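@channel sequence for tomorrow's demo:
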Amino acid sequence: EVNPFAGSHPGVIQGCTFDALSTPLTSGPQTTLKIPFAGRPPAIGVEITDVQNINIGVVNANANTFQHIECGVHVVSNSKLTLVNSDFREIRYSTYCSNNPCPNTGIPVLVENKSTLIAGGSIAAANNFKNCDNGIHTRNEVTCDIRFNDFKNIDASPLYPSRSIYLVSNTLQTMTVNDNSFTDFRQGVEIQ
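structure tokens (generated this afternoon):
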């Protein structure tokens, strides 16, 4: 979790792996959480609230990897995130809630509430989304610039929605979606 910070945050998340499996694709979730959540995989890789400006990833450096968790990056409110050179894999809906699927799960990047997202921006800065239920979601007055990202096999169970890029309730905000690649997906871009 990144605590509220006025100004450009001096920290950068680079070359990190957020993985809830002890041995990818073989051993199942680690029991890393405490009661009452014991047995559940970690839910969120990075959560950001009220941070004026923060970077996740660095161009031409080791990529960040987010995999086997419920949500990779969640910007809760009033923040500006620049997201580059990050890979999101196997981020799936959670069914631990009585209301399946659990809210805000199965979403690699979720940006909400009067925030700004810059995702990718050039071929060298591209983010990759592979084998996930969804891709990038924004809602409630989010300004976004989403360019040169790669979305492959973005498809959930037929019971749940699956969108590569989903921009909702962003009236009067600038939304730019250019030069992204979509392969094997249920829905590419939806704007509401």
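heads up for whoever presents: The longest strand covers residues 5-13.
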